[in-house]
Write a structure and sequence with these properties.
This protein is about 50% helix and about 10% strand. The protein is α+β, with helices and mostly antiparallel strands. β1 (about 150) and β2 form a beta hairpin.
Length: about 400
């Protein structure tokens, strides 16, 4: 890769074009990183932290460190004729086809393999665009759906079910309700408005108001980024948890972009020479009350009603789950009446099965029993309803999980 060309300033006509040109440069850097790891010139993260990657697996390296294969596959998916269903086998087949093609670039013309890979990606993109021209379709990408926003901050509300991070001190575990935040690409705001501050105080102010008005059950505000490993995050009040694991998700590569949306070439050079990034991606978090004390605007301070988890609900759900397990474990001996009897002994599920959705779901179960369906047949039939069932139950449970707590934000 020619680092001199990477160092050349980007001159896009607008923010969208600037972003596309910047993405091309970052992709080239990622491919160069793969090359140096594959040639054993450097170790992933300079052997700092756990990388969990086979450095001899070219396809694995491409998948872990670059978006090339996933993008090419997604572009090809856009060219499928209408009515053709996308299948998992297609993904695996295309992954092998595209990986073999890129590997041939690598082996046969190593000096130009990155350029040829980029050209291949552009060709696949062009094919997809040509396919959808004249239709009502749009080019789908692998990007996530837009998140909720507060100024520069984007966020999602989720439980920490995957144990993304834990803190015994602050009682953060898999059942903690979190607001996961990340900053919008700051350079886009600065290109649009040069007066934009690099410290997001105003955005934190807006976020604090949204928490009080709409998300009072959030217990923790958390972010997963290289930014959380900087003085800016510490100044903002976030505590840091370093899981000591190599993380090269999208958030990682932003540290090689300056505030004007140009490549920080000195950081890139040092990273490619050593494999050690300027900042590792870490978790940063702040308890909701601490966040409000720091960022809630003066005019909104005073007596605030927040919500806290009701520990008794979790115990009741666990107890009810064991009770309902009897239905599945003893399905052959069950009757529709016996199912009703077991559910009547529960607390949480008894109320859930009195909702409109719950009544229909329960009646379907009992009807399958009346038709003498086996438990395997029942599970197969109910599989198509599983997602909706969990969604409806979570919505129902949400109303019961929390009790109000009065706090004073001075």
């Amino acid at each position: 890769m020619n680092l001199e060309s990477i160092a050349q300033p980007i001159q896009g006509h607008n923010i969208e074009e600037h972003s596309e040109l910047l993405d091309e440069k970052i992709t080239a850097i990622k491919l160069e990183y793969v090359d140096r790891i594959f040639l054993k010139k450097i170790a992933p993260f300079g052997e700092q932290g756990e990388s969990h990657v086979d450095v001899n697996d070219f396809t694995g390296l491409l998948n872990k460190y670059t978006p090339v294969l996933s993008r090419a596959i997604n572009y090809r998916r856009n060219t499928l004729p209408e009515g053709v269903d996308w299948k998992t086998e297609m993904y695996a087949s295309l992954e092998k086809e595209f990986s073999d093609k890129i590997l041939s670039f690598y082996k046969n013309d190593h000096e130009n393999w990155i350029q040829k890979t980029e050209e291949f990606l552009q060709i696949e993109k062009a094919k997809a665009i040509v396919t959808i021209v004249g239709t009502n379709s749009t080019l789908t990408t692998e990007q996530e759906e837009p998140k909720q926003t507060a100024g520069l901050i984007h966020y999602d509300i989720e439980y920490n079910h995957n144990n993304f991070f834990e803190s015994t001190e602050d009682k953060i575990n898999k059942d903690t309700r979190c607001m996961f935040i990340h900053l919008e690409s700051l350079y886009k705001k600065i290109l649009a408005d040069a007066s934009t501050s690099i410290f997001p105080t105003e955005s934190f102010n807006k976020l604090a108001e949204q928490i009080v008005d709409t998300y009072s059950s959030v217990e923790v505000i958390a972010g997963h980024s290289w930014v959380m490993n900087t003085a800016i995050a510490k100044r903002a009040g976030f505590k840091v948890i370093d899981n000591n694991v190599e993380d090269v998700t999208g958030a990682f590569w932003g540290q090689f972009i300056d505030f004007k949306g140009q490549i920080n070439i000195e950081r890139v050079k040092k990273f490619l020479e050593t494999g050690i990034p300027p900042y590792k991606v870490v978790w940063g978090y702040m308890k909701t009350e601490d966040f409000l004390k720091k960022y809630l605007p003066k005019g909104r301070r005073g007596k605030i009603i927040l919500k806290e988890p009701n520990p008794e609900i979790a115990k009741k759900v666990e107890k009810d789950s064991q009770l309902l397990k009897q239905i599945q474990d003893n399905w052959d001996k069950m009757t529709a009446e016996k199912i009703d009897e077991i559910i009547s002994q529960s607390e949480i599920y008894r109320e859930f099965f009195q909702t409109d959705f719950g009544k229909k779901y329960l009646e379907r179960i009992k009807d399958l029993k009346r038709k003498d369906k086996t438990i395997d047949e029942v599970n197969n039939i109910q599989q198509s309803y599983a997602g909706q069932y969990h969604e409806e139950f979570d919505i129902f449970l949400e109303k019961m999980k929390f009790s109000e707590k009065e706090v004073i934000i001075e």
